[in-house]
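thought: fold this chain, then report.
action: predict
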Amino acid sequence: ATSGHIEHGEHHPATELRIVLIGGRYNDLHSGKSSAGNFILGQNVFDTSRRTAQSEARQQEVFGRRVTVVDTPGWWWKVPREETPKLDQIEIQNSVHLCPPGPHVFLLVIPIGLHLCQDLKSSLKQHLELFNADVFSHTIVLFNAVDPCSDEVIESIIKRIPDMQRILQQCGNRKHFFNISNREDRDQVKKLLEKIETLITNNGFRHCSVDRSQGETLRKEMRDLTERASKRFDQVQKQRKKLKELIEGSITYPRCLCVSGQLEFGW
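observation:
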């Protein structure tokens, strides 16, 4: 896999790495964040059969490092942030509080085959604003290929998309390629972890800054939103039950006249 413009010096493996996976979906094309998380950790710890509704953290030892990966809800690539459900936005924001004291890196997961247009770039920028200002200095773009695909082919695809070039520039041209179809090739994961360690070194060993008080505020917002949603659900259920009782209680036979042994309905 190609390293992008990352300086390689003497390599000292970190003992702990904290990773947050972010990204969106486009029509039926999912970013594959959960699959990427499973690939990194070497175990199927994230459920890939459903959409990720809540941010969740999982931890494993990988190549001698304690690696924490946080999966997050994806947004629709072509949808502005104001149309992303509020609870999803809060869950995305809360992801950085699930790997204290803060993530070393955000992996922006983009599936190969996603054609970026202006809407997608705008949506990405708006959703990354959910995090603090230095998110780009802690981001590596992770291109996810489900079908077998060479690094050269992926490079040629990227070069044909100007907006992708701009996104990469914002992320310091840091990128990595995953061929998810080749899960036996753990060297892909090892190289990614090395790139993350180089990024940490270049950032002066600083993780992305996290406001603890914001975490408490987000948790309260989540509780309030969940409680309101639960109350609305209960109200709907009660209304349905009441309506059912009214309908069942109001069933009466029409006024009828019995003529020659037959029922004749009169309206």
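thought: worth noting. The longest strand covers residues 16-22.
final: tokens above.
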